[in-house]
Hints:
- Chain A has no helices and eleven strands.
- Chain A is mainly beta.
- The model of chain A has no long low-confidence stretch (mean pLDDT 94).
- Chain B is mainly beta.
- Chain B is built from no helices and eleven strands.
- Chain B has strands at 5-7, 10-13, 19-24, 31-37, 44-50, 53-56, 65-68, 75-79, 88-95, 104-105, 109-113.
- In chain B, strands 2, 4, 5, 6, 9, 10 and 11 form a seven-stranded mixed β-sheet that branches. A four-stranded antiparallel β-sheet of chain B has the order 1-3-8-7, with no helix packed on it.
- The mean pLDDT of chain B is 95.
Amino acid sequence: RKEVEQDPGPFNVPEGATVAFNCTYSNSASQSFFWYRQDCRKEPKLLMSVYSSGNEDGRFTAQLNRASQYISLLIRDSKLSDSATYLCVVNLGGNKLVFGAGTILRVKS
Amino acid sequence: GAGVSQTPSNKVTEKGKYVELRCDPISGHTALYWYRQSLGQGPEFLIYFQGTGAADDSGLPNDRFFAVRPEGSVSTLKIQRTERGDSAVYLCASSLGGGLTTQYFGPGTRLTVL
Lengths: 109, 114
């Protein structure tokens, strides 16, 4: 079993739609959680950290359920510019990030 | 300010050759990481430096891979006797400290082994 699992998609949605991505992780000792965004042939960039209380940044909302070892990302009012691969990432408390394979989002007009 | 830079951006080599990939971290960042990303996958951890020393090299796939950071700033990832399976994007990241501090990634070096 992979340490971090994501639905690879692609998710094809119209502009203005709400879309949700889920991710599960296998190591209960994981200490911090993130969503990174990666555009085609570019480096990953931090989108947001994920906290147990849930957190929101504009149109983006992230949730963490430690009991179920599950992380989610909700994007409201999708824009064309949101098209990218979204990487679910955990840190086990050491110094290495463990990435999922990514979920592809395509927002179409 | 300047982000993480990596050179070359692309490297094509032949099987069996030696390659060096360079990473220049954000100024003042003491922690430096190397990751490898294959097509359709997320980045995979290779090695982590805190200052000049390799604090965690558990992700290096075998002894053909080696990395150095002699002055605690620029790092070089060295791959000996390259194999076709080494073809990937090699990403470098840096952070202010180790642990849970945010990692900022460079644009990567796309290595192709023919």
